[in-house]
Amino acid sequence: MLMPSRDKGITSMAHKKVTIGGKDVYIVKDHHHVLGGWAEVRHSQAQAGAPAPALLTLDHHTDTKDPFFNHRFWATHKGPTDQNTAAMDAMLPGLIGDIDWKTKASVKRAIAKLKHDEHVRTAIRADIVSRAFVINLSGENRADPVGHVYETCSGCASIGCTKPIHDDQCVRSRTDQMLESVHLNHEIAELNAKARANGVPGVGADPYILDIDLDYFHTQKAIAPTNTTTFYQLLQNALAVTVATEPACVKSLRLRGSKITGKSLLADMLQHIQTALP
Predict the structure, then answer these.
(1) What InterPro entries does the database record attribute to this sequence (predicted)?
(2) Under a CB-based contact definition with an 8 Å cutoff, are residues 41 and 239 in contact?
(3) Cα-to-chain-centroid distance, residue 13
(4) What are the phi and psi torsion angles at 148 (to 5°)?
(5) CA-CA distances (angstroms) from residue 96 to 74, 89, 93, 126, 129?
(6) Any idea which of 61-65, 160-164, 229-233, 251-255 has the lowest mean pLDDT?
(7) Cα gap 100→185, rounded to integer Å
(8) pTM above 0.70, yes or no
(9) Which end of the chain has less Cβ packing within 10 Å, N or C?
């Protein structure tokens, strides 16, 4: 498990906003900066009299660590082996209460105290999104007693693999099919079943933001699906799209022989969005 790292001071709320086919697309380098785009969507929805949207995110990681965990850890600990959970817990209500999604300055201050894996639950606690559906590759799914986060990583089952023992070939085949309809349909069905068991609407039942971390793709083939039907429907039905390029993660997670980069994947993703939203 990675130990918390020291905060490095204030960072800017850096996102680029473009409009494609009438839909806003927010592009960031560091994934937690999508909170800025999510807050803008939340504000727009509120002005229209609508509640907080849901979130559907495609990511290698789950990015569902507790809000402001790293910031709270170092604010209350002298070293990585200290035990001071009570003090950490006491800080959280104030940090969440300081977030006003109607003001960019407030969201910017929150982003400065976040790490890349803390934004999903922060957005839920701050009423920026109502709940999150996470399709991931790491398999580090965490139980959510409140029922606001639903995660799935089905392995080779998502592409219909029936081998009793999965091997490297299986992993490569699944990795190559991250945007294929067969994979997305399977994972969305898993998420819907989990939501239904909890008595809440599933993916697409309510307005949602589609969030894509480009480290979800480990090969060039992964971002060049044969069947784009489901992915394009997700793009078309989303309120807005957020994309995190995460170049360091893309480089570290790409499979041997792959030359994909955050920059190359962004170009491919924008082409998909333009095709889906003419």
Answers:
(1) UPF0489
(2) yes
(3) 17
(4) -105, -10
(5) 17, 12, 5, 6, 13
(6) 160-164
(7) 35
(8) yes
(9) N
Cα-Cα-Cα-Cα dihedral sign, residues 171, 173, 175, 178? negative
Q: How much is the CA Rg of the chain, to the nearest whole Å?
A: 18
Q: What does the DSSP assignment read for 183-195?
A: HHHHHHHHHHHHH
Q: Tokens 């473009």 map to which residue?
A: 18
Q: What is the pLDDT of residues 220-266, one digit of tens each?
A: 999 999 999 999 999 999 999 999 999 999 999 999 999 999 999 99
Helices (H) and strands (E) counted in the chain, each on its own, are 10, 7
Strands (E), the chain: 16-20, 23-28, 54-59, 132-136, 149-152, 208-213, 240-244
Q: How far apart are CA 33 and CA 13, in angstroms?
A: 6
